[in-house]
Amino acid sequence: MRKGGFQVLSMTMLTVLVTAAALTVAVAKPKPFDKSDDAGKVDEPTKYLPDYDKLTEGGEADWTYFPAGSLKTYKSVSVKTFTQNAIEDHTDEAETAAKNGKKYLEQWLKKAGFKVVDEGGELVFDGNVFDAWEPSGAGRFWGGWMANPGCGLELIAKDGSGKVVAEIRHKARGSTVKDAVENGLESIVKDIAKVK
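Above: the chain sequence. Below: its structure as tokens.
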């Protein structure tokens, strides 16, 4: 091989390696919530979780943050009654969603292998409904995301000392708002189970 050909081949190989390394870094870094289309929506408050800027794309749930990484050491959990902070137009639906949050979260946590106790769990879950909707007749007719009832859910898990060990934000749909809550919490617990 001539010297010029070897240099071209070497430069081509170097370019391929640098490109592959750059793609690996780009793929490895998950998209953050604060750079997403979900952030900053006027009808979806971001005033419940302490670290919206640390949420990244989850697996089953839309956005997750596990500061300690793993939840393997926790066996028992307690779930508090959900709150809601939806905008005024969605308050009624959000209250309905919040009323169902605790029982569905307990149901899915049990199925994931946690022992659910009324008080004193090694993990304590607080939940919030940031949005809930029941589509109008026109919304159902025209389709799209808002064609089905749905809700936006947020969870914080704290250990016995009060340290936050999980933050999750997720939107879900269902045949009713109640069904959307159950579907959403099922997805959230699937992500929790992955780090359990």
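The mean pLDDT is 87.
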